[in-house]
């Protein structure tokens, strides 16, 4: 059976190994980020995700200089940044948002400083914008391992993490170790930020960690469905964004995040229960009921 002529140009990206690798790798990263996005949205950790995505930059720079896997340096840097935020928050009266802003900008500045002092072998553009089209085999293996660990942990602990994100006091009351769950979620967030760094770069990591969950939040009131929707939105938009980047000759990360934003805006307007149109209809019905009574 021959392929229709109109379909041939659309299949061109699949003929290049680097594009095929980018598409399936982005799909994997997007799915994991979308899955974790539900917990971040429920917990209100958007700023924490932004902080960690920037705080991994000095770890990447040091890892390249030391000749060790970049994922190890990035993950260590993220954990150190989280510990620094927790320490400053406990020891000072400074508000949490200010603490997060101070720590993540300091870490990011340190990373830029290291890269400017030791520029050889370190591409700041790849760290900031991602380099999924030129990703090495060892980095793909790291992403697969991180994704697999995150998926297993979430599959085993999602109910405990749900209760912790929704009501930490209730979690403690029924015997759950809230401190352990806090650290576990922080580790998952750090590991996922490191994985997404290759696809979309440090600047856009926060978008893929928040937007799918926020979109799913508008579409359903059930947390289990929210997790699945977030994962599906993250995976599908990441695949389409990476695929479309070939035709528009743009960075895959920018295409992915732009597409996720468009999906969010569509949900914001058209969601059956929480969309703007649904809210307008509900207010109109309420006014009509009040006028009739």
What does this entry show, briefly?
It contains twelve helices and no strands. By secondary structure, the chain is mainly alpha-helical. Helix 4 (about 70-90) crosses helix 9.
Explain what you see:
With 293 residues, the protein is mainly α. It has a single domain, classed as ABC transporter involved in vitamin B12 uptake, BtuC, CATH 1.10.3470.10. It contains twelve helices and no strands. It has helices spanning 17-43, 46-55, 57-66, 70-91, 96-117, 124-129, 137-166, 168-173, 178-219, 223-248, 252-270, 276-292. Helix 9 crosses helix 11 (252-270).
What characteristics describe this protein?
globular; 293 residues; mainly alpha; ABC transporter involved in vitamin B12 uptake, BtuC
- For this structure, the CATH topology is ABC transporter involved in vitamin B12 uptake, BtuC
Q: Profile the largest sheet.
A: none
List the secondary-structure elements in sequence, H or E.
Answer: HHHHHHHHHHHH
Which percent range fits the helix content? over 70%
Structural class: mainly alpha
Strand count: 0
Give the number of domains: 1
Name the shape in a single word. Answer: globular
Detail the poorly predicted runs.
none
What is the average per-residue confidence, as pLDDT, rounded to a whole number?
83
**Any idea what the CATH superfamily is called?**
ABC transporter involved in vitamin B12 uptake, BtuC
